[in-house]
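This part of the workshop introduces the protein records we will be handling. To make this concrete, we reproduce a full record directly below.
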Amino acid sequence: MKTYLKFGAIMAVIVGSLVWLAIGGVADTKTYYKTIPELQQMGKDAQDHKLRVGGDVKPGSIVKNGMETSFVLHQGATTLNVVYAGSDPLPDTFRDNAQALADGRLGSDGVFRANKIQAKCASKYEAKPNQKGVSHPAQMPDKISSVRY
């Protein structure tokens, strides 16, 4: 009987530890997506959370200073100063007018400190108008007989 109690106690400690680690890990990696106006409406509460903020990179605002890159995100007339000091290089598509997502925390000075940046240049993925050799999707064949690489 004593052996079963010891085994049960050890199992309870192991399971309890795993549950505690899982809950703590989820809480640490949770990121809330906010627009710039929503972030500004949060006030000081925004400083307590890991956030993801999206917007367009304001033209002429990208400034590289050593390991840091600062820039301004905007949504309409609302802007947010961002400083990126992450270890990953910035994406190739990160440039003026690109859509960008910044992951990080809002500082007490109102500057968003990002540790991860994702960028998409919308014009890169759009088809050029009246481009020769490119068919409209409605004119594409239903099946492709062979593909060569």
User: Anything to note?
Assistant: The domain at 31-121 is CATH 2.40.50.140 (OB fold (Dihydrolipoamide Acetyltransferase, E2P)).
